[in-house]
Amino acid sequence: MKVLQFFQKSPLPQKLVPIGIEEIFLLQEAPCDIWTYEGDILKPLFRKNGPIVKEAGQELIKKGIYQLFIQDDEVGGLQKALGQHLRQMSRTLGTGEATKNTLHQMSLLSTNMGNLYKNPSHDESLILQYRSAGNLINFLSSNKKHIPQLYADFTRQNYHYSTGHPLLSSLLLLSFLKYLNHFNEREVELLVLSNYFKDIGMSLIPIESFDKKDLNQFEKDSIGRHAMHSTDILRGRVPLNSNYLDIIGNHHNHALIDSMEDHHHAPSPHTGQLYGSSQETETILILMMDMITAMISPRPYRPGMSLFEALHKIKILFAKDFKREFHYLIYFLQQFFSRTKQFTR
Asked: Which residues lie below 8 Å from residue 338, measured CB to CB, with a gap of 6+?
């Protein structure tokens, strides 16, 4: 009997909905009853207010089980519990094991970003995400030695690229900005926050478009407009001024991006001269980090490419007009990824 058919015939009074296994094991205590199944047998894994046993998650993964189930009227409670835990972790990043705590914080951010994508108009969730991301950036800005290990560790996490990529590209951008030493701490914070939220407009795109290899023209146009959607979602709701909103709106607005094959980096309908912005260098720095991270990472519709191949594409696009930045980029990436290798198991 198929699982969904079993649920339909189940005597449980509420409908069960699937959740990712990673959501539950970010918590210490179950906010609701949590169910799993073995064959056709539905079993309670954790009871409401009971402890979350981490070893149980490891056993499920060994069995190839990556989804759990809760009643549909408990989804809001789960999201609230995750938000509260994110808020708590944001306040204690500097205590205990720094790398372990920060990686846990990054997992919470990615999980909550996924929930925010489902409801980007929820002000409380957006502000919590903005403040928590800001705390993470400020902590890592003062503890940049942890970033290569965090990058290596987070790439092994099982997050969809729509929620994982913003953090990976932000780690790379933060390291690069610190390497350049051209920006003050406040500028670094705002640039990395702009990078982290620049793709929130993707929340308005049908989720099935993310994993398709071949997109129709409507889907390509929708993805191409996501930068403008991001500025519309963020304007007046987070403390980013017009300069940073312009950077977000322009982060795919470069005529040469037409040559890119990755539809996640489809060109904006307004390619060409940057509109309404004097922040061209900052925009290009974000764009280069965004593209490098995306190109070397696998996607459901294509494998990741080598760093050498990715740099070759970046060279074609930007080396002529941004010679100095590209020169710094090469040396930075060599150092950064040589350090991440020592943390790759």
From this structure: none
Best mean pLDDT range from 212-221, 252-261, 286-295, 314-323: 286-295
What phi-psi label fits residue 30: left (phi over 0), alpha (psi between -120 and 50 degrees) or beta?
beta
Residue linked to tokens 């982060």: 251
Distance CA 251, CA 232 (A): 14
**Distant-in-sequence, close-in-space partners of 199: CB < 8 Å, separation ≥ 6:** 162, 165, 166, 226, 227, 230
The predicted structure's pLDDT at residue 65: 82
pLDDT digits (tens, 9 = 90+) for 280-316: 889 999 999 999 999 999 988 889 999 999 999 999 9
**Neighbour tally for 295: CB within 10 Å:** 23
Q: Which residues contact 312 (CB under 8 A, 6 or more apart)?
A: none
State the helix-helix crossing angle for 161-180 and 323-340, rounded to 10 degrees: 110
Q: 108 with 131: CB under 8 angstroms?
A: no
- Per-residue tokens: 249: 């709106």
Q: Are 158 and 129 in contact (CB under 8 A)?
A: no
Map tokens 């058919």 to a residue.
Answer: 5
For residue 44, report the phi and psi dihedrals to the nearest 5 degrees: -75, 125
- b or e along 59-79 (b: 16 or more beta carbons within 10 Å of the residue's beta carbon)? ebeeeeeeebbbbeebeeebb
Kindly report which listed range (196-200, 278-282, 321-325, 333-337) carries the lowest average pLDDT score: 278-282
